[in-house]
Amino acid sequence: MNRPSHRRSPRDWAVDTAVFLFALIFGLAIFEDSVEPGSREFVILLDLILGLALCIAIWFRRRWPVQLALIASVISVFSESASAAGLVLILSVAVYRPLRTTLLVFGVNSISLFFYLQVKKPPESGALAVAVIALYIAVAGWGLYIRSRRQLMQTLRDRADRAETVAKLQAEQGQLRAREEIAREMHDVLGHRLSLLSVHAGALAYRPDASTEEVASAAEVIRASAHQALQDLREVIGVLRAPVGELPQPAFADLPALVEGAQEAGLPVELTLDVAGTLPDHVGRTAYRIVQEGLTNAMKHAPGEPVTIALAGAPGNGLTVEVRNPAPNRRRGEGQGLLGLTERAALVEGRVEYGRTPEGDFRLHAWLPWPA
User: Fold this and answer.
1) Which positions, given as ranges, span the membrane (predicted)?
2) 0.85 cut: is pTM over it?
3) CA-to-CA distance for 118 and 297, rounded, in angstroms?
């Protein structure tokens, strides 16, 4: 339990004022009942001065509870008016310090009670000693209860703070995952469209002798691809604030249309499908993205070179996807899309491998689980 701050709150001022008045009033009442006729004025005055000093010391009980309680144990041997203030200081030690310290202070005050009985010699000393010890135990027990309750409340507040912090971190991680998913979607969707645009624009640049019909046909393909890319971009931006699961997602059935678009762009593509059964949506979507990334890389690094795509699989055996094409212009430092594919495959407990073959081709191979 953290030690209390020395700065008092309005509540602390109210509590300290009430405790001071309690110690002063009850201390004077005990003094009045215990003072004997014929007592010396010096002894009476000293008793009152010590009691008042100890009552004033209550204002500093939060800062030095143990020291003041030990001083009170000595003063209470000689001063009747300090009795109530001593009880308050025992309570303060139990509230603000550990149990071991509280027991130490309790023991010292019990010893001081023994000396008080020897000095004052009150009537019925045995009964008085039992009553005072019981009062010490009650006050210390009350203080320990207050301390344990405060510790419990502090623990609950700490747990609430930790839960709030964890919730914020989870929300931030969720936002980060959403951004990564959106970035991956934009790369997959727009990268393929822009690669088609690049291929057709490059064909126009390297064919100055093309006929008017060929130029018009290529320009129409460029226009259609640009329009479709703009539509895809609008779809992705339109759902930036939507849950990630609501992003536009392709299906495995869209794979032939994807290959057909690449063929129209002038890329020789051979597609082989040996799939027995209906693929789960998440597996089919991942397979589509793998083929899309393979075609995009082929158009970017080996435009005009033949591409072979083979998909085979059955329930219980998994689905294999392979995209192979010559890669004479493949450069290091490129492959963010391939890294994204690796992450996609890992999400469905699959794997992706890519690299050059001994024949000089670039091979993109993936295996995706297909439950039976």
Assistant:
1) 12-30, 42-61, 68-96, 102-119, 126-145
2) no
3) 100
CB environment 85-109: b (16+ within 10 A), e (fewer): bbbbbbbbbbbbbeeeebebbbebb
H or E element, residue 231: helix 212-238
What is the CA 283 to chain-centroid distance, rounded?
A: 31
Chain centre distance of CA 362: 42
- Domain residue extents for the chain: 10-164, 251-372
Instruction: Tell me the per-residue pLDDT of 73-128, one tens digit each, with 9 for 90 and over.
Output: 888 887 777 888 888 888 888 888 888 888 888 888 888 888 877 777 777 777 87
Residue 337: both structure tokens together: 């899309």
Backbone φ and ψ for 274, nearest 5 degrees, come out as -135, 65
CATH tag for 251-372 (out of 3.30.413.10, 3.30.565.10, 3.40.50.1220, 1.10.3720.10) = 3.30.565.10
Residues 294 and 338: their CA atoms lie apart, in Å, by 9
Amino acid 185 reads E
For the chain, report the end-to-end CA distance as a whole number of angstroms: 58
| Contacts (Cβ under 8 Å, ≥6 apart) of 143 | 90, 91, 92, 93, 94, 95, 102
